[in-house]
Design a protein that fits this description.
Helix content: 10-25%
Strand order of the largest sheet: 2-5-8-11-14-17-19
Largest sheet: 7 strands, parallel
Order of helices and strands: HEEEEEEEEEEEEHEEEEEEE
Structural class: alpha/beta
CATH class: Mainly Beta
Strand content: 25-35%
Number of strands: 19
CATH topology: UDP N-Acetylglucosamine Acyltransferase, domain 1
CATH architecture: 3 Solenoid
CATH superfamily: Hexapeptide repeat proteins
């Protein structure tokens, strides 16, 4: 191996070690779960029990719990690709089953993230910039997301609030999921 390749390999291992240690401060992690160099848990609420991740998982993306509410529960053998975002502000939150693969750049949200009303949206944005995310719900719409076991979500797919995806389903790359997907379904176009 060449010197720079060795250096890069060592750097990646160190960054993974740091990311995994930081994640333990913000979530309950199962054994042998690891975080990639760009991965993080942004638990604005602060309560570790709001993010639970099973055993033998790899996360390369970003998990976020809002200040006023939100939960993320992930089963064993889960893979979250680089650049993914999983955001929750719903009281029930996001539940992801066992053996789920989420390819790079996919987005899973149980929330609109901002109020639909323009005045409330501006007030929330100003509050975030001045003092951080508000602890009181500023009128954000949310609904639980449930992803069954052995689901594969393709690169750049978007899973919106209120959706249930059945076991063993495949969501193709770039698809936006707005409605429930039955088990054993290959979804190739946005629904």
């Amino acid at each position: 191996m060449r010197p720079f390749s060795i250096f890069l390999a060592i750097r990646r291992r160190f960054e993974t070690w740091i990311a995994t240690r930081a994640a333990r401060e913000n979530a309950i992690l199962g054994p042998r779960t690891k975080f990639g160099p760009g991965a993080e848990i942004y638990n604005i609420h602060g309560e570790r029990s709001r993010v639970k991740i099973g055993a033998d998982c790899y996360l390369g993306g970003h998990l976020q719990i809002f200040a006023h509410e939100g939960r993320i529960e992930i089963g064993d053998l889960f893979v979250l690709g680089d650049g993914c975002k999983v955001w929750s502000s719903d009281p029930v939150g996001i539940k992801i089953g066992r053996g789920v693969i989420v390819a790079s750049g996919a987005i899973i949200h149980d929330t609109n993230s901002h109020p639909m009303d323009a005045v409330k949206r501006l007030a929330q944005t100003v509050a975030i910039m001045k003092t951080g995310h508000p602890r009181i719900d500023p009128g954000i719409r949310s609904a639980p997301v449930v992803i069954g076991d052995d689901v594969w979500i393709g690169t750049g797919a978007v899973i919106l609030k209120g959706v249930t995806i059945g076991d063993r389903s495949i969501i193709a790359a770039g698809v936006t999921v707005r409605n429930d997907v039955p088990p054993d379904t290959l979804l190739r176009t946005s629904n």
